[in-house]
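Worked problem 6 (solution included).
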Amino acid sequence: MKKHTLSGLLALSVLVGCSSSDEIVPDIPPSELYSEAQVSLQSGNWLSAIDKLEALDSRYPFGAYSEQVQLDLIYAYYKNDDLALGLATIERFSRLNPTHEKLDWVLYMRGLTHMAQDRNFMHDLFNVDRSDRDPEPVKKAFADFKKLLERYPNSPYAEDAQKRMISLKNRLADYDLATADFYLRREAWIAAINRAQELQKTYPDTEAALRSLKIQLEAYQELGLEDAVKHTQQLIDLNDI
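Solution. The predicted structure is:
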């Protein structure tokens, strides 16, 4: 029974990521097709919206709806977890429209899309700790939101971007903590100390930075560095860890 359940979940996870459907988009006027795409978007029917928007984009690449179609595709791809397509569309739009009034939103969506790349359906489902996963998409998302704040400080998306940067910073700090712990368990004492200290320097205001002190303490103890042990213990006591 468990095997069938897991197989079903795996099949579902594959289906969720599919962007194309069997729907044949009729050859109708662009205004009518765009209206139908908007209905699909508003109802959350992402596959249908994507089919119609992609048809518009390919049939009328320089039409009256061209720019808005690409913006809608960015959103629909994100909602449907077609993240690679979303990023490709973002890059294309940014390259072709370097002064567009909605570039702050496009940059915000790039950050959200990179954040989404750090998600994993099965990990979320089974509540798996992902702190030791490669944080490259997180670094990109952090850079996107930072750029948004620098370029468009008055953007309506700036406040949310700033909040997300806090979460991303904690994710990056947790990764460094997991790495330091990995070195500790492998008895690579110097590597554990170096990673712990780098974490404390880069993300000093995170919970992970405080927790890394205990890894640092154990590594110093193993190396027999009494002065360093004493100093680290003082930091632990001072922060009531």
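Discussion: The CA atoms of residues 97 and 103 lie 8 Å apart.
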